[in-house]
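Input (structure):
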């Protein structure tokens, strides 16, 4: 990358940090994608549609998701250059636009979740500290839809106050309210009785908190205890179950977006595909041709 391009990318990164609150890892990802493009087109700051048109062939062996991410980074970069007056034209129309098919998330049905909790509660009834900890982890994963990183990094003081919610900084440092059920609060309170004095984390492990890998292992072990195939269950699967079951019981999509901390509602809309049974039932119940006024008007006398 040339010195001129580095200067433009630095200005672009400053804008992302100041106006969008982009996190360090996000900024590094943008820089990496722009550097990758410069390997093919040369100076990205002055590249035209002809140079950018070569990227489709150059990136042919990459996954569609990677190509889409790199193209998105370039589009935002050129939009910034135009907005700031560094160039008068936007060549991003020549960038490749791969079709991304978002896979449907794996989800446990409510019967599986009930089995998971029954087994965890039976084990926690012994009063053994680590089993109480595991139940608290499970309650927060499914009851609040926390991301794995958010859960394991909860500070020791979390849930110490009676508010029915937490304020968390999720991806990109964006804050959101996370509901905490009475069940989860009670489970955490029982585990807190065994929390070492002076602990910095609610779920300590070694010198820090338990790792995401350890959480993954614990969740799969709890699934096995409940007679559920461990490969079907993970912290992220429980987050998906939280979302899908809320939607299935009438939650509004915008509310669900806020609870999950999704920046784009398109990400949340994946759950409308998962909960197809409820959507079919909804159409059959409220559509005018399914028992409404039109259906009655057309029924034989």
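Output (sequence):
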């Amino acid at each position: 990358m040339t010195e001129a391009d580095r200067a433009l990318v630095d200005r672009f990164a400053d804008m992302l940090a100041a106006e969008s609150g982009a996190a360090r890892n996000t900024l590094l990802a943008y820089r990496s994608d722009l550097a990758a493009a410069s390997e093919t087109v040369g100076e990205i700051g002055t590249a035209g549609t002809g140079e950018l048109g070569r990227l489709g062939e150059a990136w042919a062996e990459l996954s569609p998701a990677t190509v889409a991410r790199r193209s998105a980074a370039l589009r935002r970069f050129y939009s910034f250059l135009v907005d700031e007056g560094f160039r008068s034209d936007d060549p991003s129309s020549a960038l490749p636009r791969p079709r991304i098919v978002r896979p449907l998330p794996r989800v446990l049905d409510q019967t599986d979740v009930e089995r998971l909790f029954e087994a965890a509660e039976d084990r926690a009834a012994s009063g053994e500290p680590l089993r109480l900890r595991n139940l608290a982890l499970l309650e927060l994963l499914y009851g609040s839809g926390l991301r794995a990183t958010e859960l394991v990094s909860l500070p020791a003081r979390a849930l110490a106050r009676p508010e029915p919610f937490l304020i968390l900084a999720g991806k990109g440092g964006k804050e959101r309210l996370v509901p905490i059920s009475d069940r989860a609060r009670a489970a955490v309170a029982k585990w807190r009785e065994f929390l070492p004095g002076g602990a910095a984390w609610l779920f300590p492990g070694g010198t820090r908190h338990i790792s995401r890998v350890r959480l993954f292992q614990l969740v799969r072990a709890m699934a096995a205890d409940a007679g559920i195939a461990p490969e079907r269950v993970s912290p992220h699967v429980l987050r998906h179950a939280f979302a899908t079951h809320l939607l299935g019981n009438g939650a509004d999509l915008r509310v669900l977006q806020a609870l999950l901390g999704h920046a784009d509602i398109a990400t949340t809309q994946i759950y409308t595909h998962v909960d197809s049974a409820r959507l079919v039932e909804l159409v059959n119940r409220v559509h005018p041709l399914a028992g409404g006024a039109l259906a009655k008007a057309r029924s034989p006398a």
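Notes: The chain has a mean pLDDT of 81. The chain has two domains: 3-94, 110-267.
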